[in-house]
Design a protein that fits this description.
Elements lengths: L2 H5 L2 H5 L2 H10 L2 E5 L2 E4 L2 H9 L3 E2 L8 H6 L10 H12 L2 H6 L1 H14 L3 E3 H6 L1 H11 L6 H12 L9 H18 L8 H10 L7 H30 L9 H11 L5 E6 L4 E3 L2 E3 L4 E5 H4 L34 H18 L2 E4 L4 E2 L8 E3 L1 E5 L2
The structure holds protoporphyrin IX containing FE.
């Protein structure tokens, strides 16, 4: 099997899971070339993510605004990463997330009130909820939110392993950069935007102008596109089987495992002497980590292709692990839990209202459209 070719194929974008199953039969770590490895096993992916010797690969872009995004925390290595991580975690605290719960509940109820009986769930709910919540958290006026959806989609296309259009991604980063540059001239006092501007202005060198902008763009985009996918992927599973979400927290965890919104991430070996699953990797080696495959590893999850919210010790790697573990994981979990609980409370029967379409992506996996019929009976 030519794994890379298969991964880049339209078939893998439509349904990567048969390919993952085949990859697991070959081993947890698949050498592709002398210094290129695809990591598929759960233990091996976890090992790499938690080993600080493996870092974020440089991804220089000739496009200026995409180059700016290299300054975000997601793309940073030590010591910059630790500096930004502690700063952002000081303002993006568990308390701030918990305090959002009433706003999340109100946003869910408002959206549910506005839904017609037959509806594209992606358009009218899965996108709307996370964008409303992240705007609230950041202190960005909610009136802007429809503008962000195509921009986020264009920007994240650059994450795909295929040659996505860097030009449209760059244009999106540029527009979002201009937007935030304008906003931070007068940030609202209580949002993350205000808190991060204050950190930059503290004058102790902990956050540069470029880092401030790159991280605001990242927080906006990371904050809703993945959560939109989590809601859509979850709802698609629930169609005709509402009982699966009787415990919303366990249901959300299993959706994360079974159909992870982020399927792939990458690392580079920053020093010599590194290995994963006992396989040596010379400095400079490029690693493709298949989070979605790790979550379906039969050595970690019995009957991995079965959707089972009651699984014991269900700890998927959908939010990564180690130093870069998703900063927004508790927010995403909270949104999804509240959403599914209230949705099913209001509409105990949800059925398909026509063919759903997937976005043509591997790395960020979600639906473009998901037509459903809602019934309160
Ligand atoms: C990092 C997934 C929601 C902000 C990550 C990473 C993953 C991930 C896999 C690590 C990437 C790596 O190590 O290479 C997800 C998923 C989400 C979600 C599946 C929803 C279901 C959110 C939300 C926010 C957020 C709601 C913010 C409000 C971030 C940030 C990082 C990150 C800032 C970078 C952390 C660092 O590099 O230290 N996310 N995320 N994410 N995520 Fe999320």
């Amino acid at each position: 099997m030519n794994l890379i070719e298969s991964l880049l194929s339209p078939a893998a974008r439509a349904d990567p899971f048969p390919l993952y199953a085949e990859a697991h039969r070959l081993g947890p770590v698949l050498p592709i070339a002398d210094t290129v490895f695809v990591i598929v096993g759960y233990a091996a992916v976890n090992e790499v993510l938690r080993n600080p010797g493996f870092g974020i690969p440089a991804d220089p872009s000739s496009e200026p605004s995409l180059e700016l995004m290299q300054r975000s925390i997601l793309r940073a290595n030590p010591p910059d990463h630790g500096r930004m991580r502690s700063l952002i975690s000081q303002v993006f605290t568990p308390r701030r997330v918990a305090a959002l719960q009433p706003a999340i509940e109100a946003a869910v109820d408002d959206l549910l009130d506005s839904l017609p009986t037959t509806v594209d769930f992606m358009d009218r709910f899965a996108f709307q909820l996370p964008v409303t919540v992240i705007c609230e958290l950041l202190g960005v006026p909610a009136s802007e939110r429809d503008r962000f959806r195509p921009l986020a989609s264009d920007l994240t296309a650059a994450l795909e392993l295929t040659d996505a259009s860097d030009a449209s991604a760059d244009a999106a980063a540029h527009e979002l950069g201009e937007y935030f540059a304008e906003l931070i001239r007068e940030p609202s006092a209580d949002g993350l935007v205000g808190a991060l501007v204050a950190a930059r202005d503290a004058g102790d060198g902990r956050l540069s102008d470029e880092e401030l902008l790159a991280n605001l763009i990242l927080l906006l985009v990371a904050g809703f596109e993945t959560t939109t996918d989590l809601l859509g992927n979850g709802l698609a599973i629930l169609l005709d089987q509402p009982h699966l979400a009787s415990d919303p927290a366990a249901f959300v965890e299993e959706v994360l495992r079974y159909d992870s919104p982020v399927q792939v991430t990458t690392r580079v070996a920053r020093t010599d002497g590194l290995s994963a699953a006992g396989i040596a990797m010379p400095a400079g080696s490029n690693l493709i980590l298949l989070l979605g495959a790790a979550n379906r590893d039969p050595a970690r999850f019995p009957q991995p292709d079965r959707f089972d919210p009651a699984r014991a010790d269900n700890k998927p790697l959908s939010f990564g692990a180690g130093t870069h573990i998703c900063l927004g994981n508790s927010l995403a979990r909270l949104e999804a839990k509240v959403a599914f609980a209230r949705l099913l409370d209001r509409f105990p029967t949800i059925t398909s209202a026509g063919p759903a379409t997937r976005r043509d992506r591997l790395v960020l996996r979600g639906y473009q459209t998901l037509p459903v019929r809602l019934s309160s009976a």
